[in-house]
């Protein structure tokens, strides 16, 4: 027994040393809470182990619950099978990151137990080798994926700096007012957002970079002459109003727009700009999620 304890303690120490995040969720408890998390979770998400225990992992989504990959995760959990998806999550400081998640049921005597393990890795958008397998553009919307957005925005920042122009981040969070049931609303919303994406591509310049972030958010990276946000707000509001004319009344939607332009210098960090613009969008609305309200209080 002593030997087993020893082995277990070594194993736990090892699990805390590895760099991928590991969580174990208990399906027999209400809402599948995390019952174990290793130290890497704090490094990846910014939350301490004690802050994630007892919660369902969805708090990392900050309300972005309509992501395609989540449909697959939900289905895999129901069917008791393994699944791997890249999901947009948010760190404790609100900065978005891509989370490469593998979930797998833990077996006991050859059968699924009540536990599901999750392996979490942050997709490093800065490194050039790693993401070669992810296509540059999302095939559905034609928009850049988040990583391409990131890399191209960094080029724009360098260009803006050399031309002494402003670099701007715009965030458009689309809000639907009358949701119908989960599955059909997902399909409807996806159709609308896909056609909205195409309009954005038509209405903005080809040098501008646009990505769809999570479910209903769009992120814009632009070089602009002035820091006045009005033109952006007006343009987006008109696009949304036009698009609403062809949307069924019960799915009418609006958008929350945040925009921040800055004259970049060598200290300008894209992560910080995105996070700051995100923070602004959260600050003037009621917290939608427990993760967020925990942070605010
Ligand atoms: C072991 C395990 C790990 C998970 N890890 C994450 C995660 O890191 N980020 C995330 O957004 N969702 C994660 N999920 C998925 C959510 O917990 C949840 O299952 C998903 O949002 C779909 O369910 P819902 O529709 O009830 O939200 C994980 C699920 C399990 C079982």
TrEMBL record:
<dbReference type="InterPro" id="IPR043128">
    <property type="entry name" value="Rev_trsase/Diguanyl_cyclase"/>
</dbReference>
<dbReference type="Pfam" id="PF13426">
    <property type="entry name" value="PAS_9"/>
</dbReference>
<keyword id="KW-0288">FMN</keyword>
<feature type="domain" description="PAS">
    <location>
        <begin position="7"/>
        <end position="56"/>
    </location>
</feature>
<protein>
    <submittedName>
        <fullName>Blue-light photoreceptor</fullName>
    </submittedName>
</protein>
<keyword id="KW-0157">Chromophore</keyword>
<dbReference type="InterPro" id="IPR029787">
    <property type="entry name" value="Nucleotide_cyclase"/>
</dbReference>
<dbReference type="InterPro" id="IPR000014">
    <property type="entry name" value="PAS"/>
</dbReference>
<dbReference type="InterPro" id="IPR035965">
    <property type="entry name" value="PAS-like_dom_sf"/>
</dbReference>
<keyword id="KW-0675">Receptor</keyword>
<keyword id="KW-0285">Flavoprotein</keyword>
